[in-house]
């Protein structure tokens, strides 16, 4: 067994020649022990290629995330003439830092020379050259592949373990801030064992070609892939933005890496940009951790790129909130044209960016993550990822025309389906109080000391809930919220005071806004209701429940188009919210879209307990939207025939048959012909009788007489018999 030679380690060296504990490489005892790999055996780096549009999904997110496929051999090319751009050339002396190497009077700038002010020698070319051996001959440099803010990045071949690696060193090892950043990067990379963070293998030293002093080089895994900035640049002309679903997928992976740094390592990344995220064959990787700092470090230098960095970071300092700010800014610049990006302009409005108008939840997520007040942003990378996943489900549902449902971590399921009454559907709106109280309730925090008690109390008895919980000697926030929920249902006069007290206790808790909105809906205070629900939606842009509440607010305010948008978003994303289907049908019907309203109800899954009711209401929608001046919708006749196959009781079926035939008879008696272009193929029979006035009268008489026999009272029976007599065909001899 070979032991690690690093001071204080001594762990076993693995089969690949690296310490199993610290990752330090061990030089073989002799060249025969680990034979160097011949250059002819090395896999040739691929030339730059255009990113393919073949997509793949990441196991962590199932079928939700689709990212471009990256070839395993797609390595970054070696630069032909590597040198630092002139606008980034400054004297390396910390006490001088004047511009050097710039073009003057038509003369090209010099990449190497001496500072005219202090005489310090400078070089803006790579310190390592092709073929140079580094790390006691272990790594053979192929060339520079990139230049970062803290130094050159090289690709090299590991002669001991056959693989490509990346070396990263300093521009100037005498610069204390650069050295501090390099040490911070090394420490962070060594500790961050995460699939979305590039792995550090070891650190080697190599003499500086000018001063002769040793320079530290971090040895990292070589990623075959491209940065998000490269992927964006390779888009076709006229479409320089990445697809929004891909942007969300990349951001989810980045948030997973940041969550690890924040919660497991106590580190802030500070310098996120589209350059520092690599989409590789091994996954999405965060690179260049040179600006990392401890969360509790209040005095270190602040790093970041214009446009990405929070402009107020100097005032309130780096934090988890500023890291999340950079994620949102990266998402914005990748997904739409952002002329004021470098000036750190606010997120544009939906009126300025069609993409944000098409995906309002995406816009809401960007707005919250970049809010001027860091306290109003997401509290953690995990929280932002949770909401982003919900946003991405909405985006994929809209793009693919398929649902992408998922259980919410914030809300329970809808408590009841409202508006699913065939007798009143479209003629009388759902009970507004019942509709409000059927909205999903916020989930109970399992860590609450009274979580068990809350789970045991029946939600069907608000008076008992209020009585038991209001008398607790040590009420928690969760029990106080449940009392408020019960008092809303009981229409308790002190509910407003309860909510005001909770607001003073927890001024930024979205659940208080939720219950205030619910209370306002019940009390028909629509302005307050909408204001409160908007606050919840701003905090939770990926959730369905606040969108249902917004749809209800819009519907009750007569804004059918807005109601349709919210209902449609919820319904196409998650069909478990059946109330959204009935609400969508009502909203479309209110705008004259009879076919669209019926289609929403026909889409209720067969396995739903409301499937039959939805099919029946879809048929009635077609009949009730059929007026003398408006031709029947295209599938009117086909839908009507379904009445013979639906599992309905006799009374319900005959009521529906009568309503459908009355609508058809009204059109027939008006002397209008059936419009072929609107109704498709016109049948000769409808519900077993000829599609003539006489045939429809016969079937109507039969329906009313059967309903009369089923009527529970004599008065109802007399009314139905009269209807049958009025529809009876009479023969005059």
Tell me what you see in this structure:
- This protein is an alpha+beta fold.
- It has 25 helices and 17 strands.
- The strands form six sheets. The protein has a six-stranded antiparallel β-sheet, covered by helices on one side. Strands 11-13-14 form a three-stranded antiparallel β-sheet.
- Helix 7 runs antiparallel to helix 8, helix 11 (462-470) packs antiparallel against helix 12 and helix 15 packs antiparallel against helix 16.
Indicate the radius of gyration in whole angstroms: 34 Å
Categorize the overall geometry.
Answer: elongated
Largest sheet: 6 strands, antiparallel
| Proportion of residues in β-strands | 5-15%
Q: Count all strands and give the number.
A: 17
The low-confidence runs, each spanning 5 or more residues with pLDDT under 50, are 26-40, 46-57
**Secondary structure tally, helices:** 25
- Helix share, percent: 40-55%
